[in-house]
Every structure is written in C-alpha cells, then in structure tokens.
Write a structure and sequence with these properties.
286 residues, alpha+beta, Thrombin, subunit H, six-stranded antiparallel barrel, rod-shaped, cell shape, MreC_beta-barrel_core, Cell/Rod_1, MreC
C-alpha cells in the first residue's frame, strides 16, 4: 500500500509539473522562462527537429527534381531557339551574298550594254569537276540558249575560260587553270595591255599551280610592259574576243632562251568559288 501511495504521489507530481509547464506556454510573453517551461520547450523543439529535418530533405529532393526538369525543358526550348536562329542567320547571310552577287552582275551587264560590243548571257555554275587537273565547271546554258564551243566565259571580275563542250541545256567550261598551249584541246590567249600608249603584246600559254599565276610569254625585250599593268585579250587569237580583262602583271623576267621575256599574271577572276558567270556572245557568232 505504501508503494502504491508513492506511485500516486509521483504521478500527481508529474502531472502538476506538466500542468505548470503548459500554463507557462499559454501565458503571454515573459522575459524569462521557468525550468519546466524550458524543459518542455526544448523537448518539443528537439522532437520537431527530428520530424521536420527528414521531411524537409525529402521535400527539397522532390523540389530539386522538379527544378531540374524545368531547367531541362527550358534548355531544350533554348537549344531549339538557338538552332532556328543559327539556321535563319545562315539563310539570311546566304541571301545577302546572293543579292550582292546578283547586284554586281546587274551592274556589270548595265556597263556592257553601254559599251554595246558583245552580248553577255548570265549562267549559274551547277557543278565543279573534282578532277583538279581537268579544271572544268558546268553551267546551265547550252545549245538551246545559243551557246557554242570556244565561246569566252567570264565573271564580273575578269576572264574565266572558254566553253569546251555543249549539250542541249548545259555546257562544260574549261577555266584558265587548265590552259596549256601544248594540248590540242586548249588555246593560248593573245593579249595586250589596257590603256597604254605603246601597246604591249604577249601570249598567255599556261597556268602555274604553285604560284597560282598565269604565264605570259613572247614579250619583246623592248616592250614597255611593267608590273601593275592590266592585261586584256587582244582579239587576235582564235577564241577570245577583244577587250576582256584577264589580270595584273606581278613580275617580268627574261625568257629561257633570252630571245623574249615572260611575265606572271595575277588573274582577276577566282576559279575556285564561281557561282554565276557570263557567256560572251560575239555578234558575228550570235
């Protein structure tokens, strides 16, 4: 009975302590807390920490997954936008380059109309022969357009070459890189110098692939040809009509046998990146 009485007393005491603590928590704010209040508050806070920390980690984990998915979707949209922008930029640049080339071609044809010497038919380069020794390109003009073999072909910059073969709707053009006076299928170019009082004369016979320059021979040692002179077709050869610009003299030296001089000519036209060219139709051939 005594032990049971002590238990009751202990339970009553604990209950009184809890009552005091709860009363302290329900009261208004005070500057200092009693030790039962502190004990209960610390116990509750510690219990909440145990419960809320794992719950916070779990919630944060799922929040991170949601954010990662959101970032992934945003990056996907961004990549699509950047790809479209790059594609549109490339297309715009290509259109600008095409517009520039066509504007230059229009200005070129207008100048030629004022000169009134030849007819220039614009053509698009549709293929380039991969054989570097052949040096030919294909254009989308042929017999149906009045194109014939050996007609001169030029760009807005200068002479490109000559028509080598012709089909109904397409033609093969041999560029000046393939010129060789020793080959039966090639023609040397008889040339003079533009706007010079004492007319110079020579013949372009080959192309030096190492120097990427045309070789001009048969120059009279007394000829006044100088570095910087502009070389044009003389019209005295079998193929190329008169007055088409070819290039600029970059050097001159004595020939192999000392009888004549030879010069190296920097072509005005580019043979590697042709897009549009002109077939020169001489009135007598038209």
């Amino acid at each position: 009975m005594k032990l049971l009485g002590n238990k009751r007393l202990l339970i009553l005491l604990l209950g009184f302590i809890c009552f005091i603590a709860l009363m302290g928590l329900t009261l208004g704010k005070r500057e200092r807390m009693s030790w039962p209040e502190k004990f209960v508050t610390d116990t509750i806070s510690w219990t909440q920490g145990i419960i809320y920390k794992p719950a916070g980690y779990i919630a944060g984990f799922f929040e991170d997954i949601r954010q990662v998915r959101t970032i992934f979707e945003e990056n996907k949209v961004l990549k699509q936008t950047l790809t479209k922008y790059a594609r549109d930029t490339t297309k715009l640049n290509d259109l600008e380059q095409t517009n520039k080339r066509l504007q230059e071609a229009l200005n070129f044809t207008e100048r030629q109309k004022q000169a009134g010497n030849y007819t220039f038919r614009i053509a698009e380069v549709v293929a380039v022969n991969p054989d570097l020794l052949n040096n030919t390109v294909s254009i989308n003009l042929g017999e149906q357009d009045g194109v014939k073999p050996n007609m001169a072909v030029m760009s807005v910059d200068g002479l490109v070459g000559r028509v080598k073969k012709v089909s109904s709707f397409y033609s093969t053009v041999q560029t000046l890189k393939g010129i060789d006076d020793t080959a039966n299928e090639s023609k040397a170019i008889s040339v003079t110098v533009k706007n010079k009082e004492n007319e110079s004369f020579g013949v372009i016979v080959s192309y030096d692939p190492g120097e990427q320059l045309l070789v001009m021979t048969m120059i009279d040692p007394n000829d006044k040809l100088e570095v910087g002179d502009t070389v044009i077709t003389s019209g005295l050869g079998q193929v190329f009509p008169k007055g088409i610009e070819i290039g600029k003299v970059v050097s001159r030296k004595q020939g192999n046998f000392g009888i004549s001089h030879e010069a190296l000519i920097q072509p005005f036209a580019s043979f590697d990146h042709l897009r549009e060219v002109f077939v020169v139709i001489v009135p007598e051939q038209g």
